[in-house]
Write a structure and sequence with these properties.
The complex is a heterodimer of chains A (290) and B (234). With 290 residues, chain A is mainly α. Chain A is built from 10 helices and 2 strands. Chain A is globular, with a radius of gyration of 19 Å. The chains are: A mainly alpha (290), B alpha/beta (234).
């Protein structure tokens, strides 16, 4: 009896880690936008939703293979991120934060409504079912393993881009001193646009991975939008390392919490944990900015 | 090289500069001295494009600078070391220097420029991986000057390089300015340490309440009674 329980526990721990990878990817995207542009994209998960529909139509209607559709979807959502910046954020850059928040909140509803009208409320899927890996009496779906591996690769690529390139260095610099960027020969508007496209590309990558695990419908963003936002707040908004750690903390709570009862209980525990943490460490797990 | 003609500038309803005209010729070191709040920093910011004048003209080697967006002015060969250094505190020394070489012309010669700056400041080479904000004030000033030199400028604008530094370090900074000059760079330097700056520059302007009150060779300025009484305490 005890052996069986241990196996389940171990399986839940591993599944938590796998879930954490994708959540960390989403948190990185959101943190990137917040850290650099100082704006929260409340509608971030809705970009993922649009990306999932992109995958669906490219694969099911245009008959493209998954591996051709994925880069196209990443480009599509990157473009959407850039567009969101140009049309909504750029005109509001000097507006009070609450106006920016309301505007991106508005975009959330626009995208949801648009998806409802354009694609209907049917649940759809890619029709791709990856097998389940059996290992020492434990079961792990390949779609989760793939999502974890690719999410990690994605994050490493972003890290290298930020560390090695001139534009990546400018992205890190701009949040530390906006006013003098012009003295470096940096056009801040261009860096904001590139950052927005990069944030969009990360949402696009996440949509390619999540589309293998979730059915697609106009409100699918709700499954991971709020949790991504909480992860970023728990990690300290704009703190990349904090977001990464918090993603795995949340994923483990969801996965282990779900083990003892329904999966939904995992979410209840995660949100309760978040509220408690807001009392204990309101500035985030790894608080640095004052 | 650099020409300002009747420049008016300010922030909002506050006017900081009134009809300022100033010249810097190639190879010269020129100082702008004056009390706190005289508009010295505004003058620097107007030249590098951080703020736009309300009236007047600014040209660099005969080209009108005011038609160019601020982030392109560095490509005219104007590098500005801002007041209080303004390094990126949570970037490494090397990343700070990298930012100084951001514009395409400098990016292509990054390795060469980095070697030049490391040669000039061996200390920066030792500390290349250290976060800039954790260094001493003097080291930060070196890093800030190094960052400006990364773009291979023709004209270096130095805004209060001695601010907040210990007297010994101030001495080192001015020695450094002499060395940079010897390399053929033109320098415009704004300072409150009047006596020290006048020993480094060829000519100087006295800026008070946003207007040029006096100008002349360093030796003349040092001999000027008003300056002696107000700034040198003699």
């Amino acid at each position: 009896m005890m052996d069986i329980f241990d196996i389940y526990l171990l399986e839940a721990v591993v599944n938590g880690i796998l879930l954490g990878g994708v959540l960390a990817l989403l948190a990185l995207g959101l943190n990137l936008i917040f850290g650099v542009i100082d704006v929260t994209w409340i509608c971030y998960a809705e970009l993922v939703m649009i990306g999932m529909y992109g995958m669906y139509y490219l694969v099911q209607y245009f008959g493209l293979s998954y591996f051709v559709a994925a880069p196209l979807t990443i480009l599509l959502v990157a473009g959407l991120g850039a567009l969101l910046h140009l049309l909504v954020i750029a005109p509001l850059l000097s507006a009070p934060p609450i106006n920016q928040l309301l505007a991106t909140g508005g975009v959330l509803f626009v995208l949801q409504s648009f998806a409802t009208v354009a694609f209907g409320i049917d649940f759809r899927n890619l029709g791709i079912r990856l097998p389940v890996l059996q290992f020492a009496e434990m079961h792990f779906s390949y779609s989760r393993l793939l999502a974890f591996g690719v999410a990690l690769i994605g994050m490493v690529l972003v890290y290298l881009f930020m560390k090695r390139t001139f534009v990546g260095t400018a992205i890190r610099a701009i949040s530390q001193d906006r006013q003098i960027m012009a003295l470096m020969g940096v056009d801040t508007r261009r860096i904001y646009l590139i950052t927005s496209a990069l944030g969009g590309a990360l949402a696009g990558l996440a949509s390619c991975l999540l589309v293998l695990q979730y059915d697609i419908h106009p409100f699918v963003g709700l499954s991971f939008g709020p949790i991504t936002f909480l992860i970023c707040v728990l990690g300290g908004l704009g703190n990349f390392v904090g977001g990464f750690v918090a993603a795995f903390v949340f994923a483990e709570i969801i996965s282990l919490g779900g083990l003892f009862s329904d999966l939904e209980w995992g979410y209840v525990l995660a949100f309760a944990f978040f509220i408690v943490m807001m009392f204990i460490r309101p500035a985030g797990l790894l608080a640095r900015r004052s | 090289m650099l020409e300002l003609r009747s420049v008016d500038a300010g922030y909002g309803s506050f006017q900081a500069l009134f009809g300022v005209s100033l010249d810097v010729k190639a190879g010269e070191a020129v100082g702008v001295i004056g009390p706190n709040g005289a508009g010295k920093t505004t003058l620097m910011r107007v030249i590098s494009g951080l703020i736009r004048p309300r009236a007047g003209a600014i040209s660099m080697e005969g080209t009108d600078v005011l038609k160019t967006p601020a982030h392109r002015i560095v490509s005219f060969g104007i590098a500005h070391v801002p007041e209080n250094r303004r390094l990126f505190p949570r970037l490494s020394v090397e990343d700070n220097l990298k930012m100084g070489a951001f514009m395409p012309e400098a990016r292509a010669r990054y390795a060469e420029r980095l070697a030049f700056v490391f040669d000039l400041f061996p200390r920066m080479k030792e500390r290349r991986h250290q976060l800039a904000g954790t260094m001493s004030g003097g080291e930060q000033q070196m890093c800030a000057i190094g960052r400006a030199l990364m773009s291979d400028p023709k004209l270096l604008l130095l805004d209060e390089p001695s601010a907040g530094l210990a007297p010994v370090v101030v001495q080192q900074v001015f020695e450094l300015v002499k060395r940079i000059r010897a390399g053929g760079l033109t320098v415009l330097i704004v300072e409150q340490s009047v006596q020290q700056v006048l020993r480094v520059v060829d000519r100087a302007y006295l800026l008070e309440a946003g207007t040029i009150r006096a100008s002349g060779k360093s030796s003349e300025m040092l001999a000027n009674d008003t300056i002696r009484q107000a700034y040198l305490g003699v």
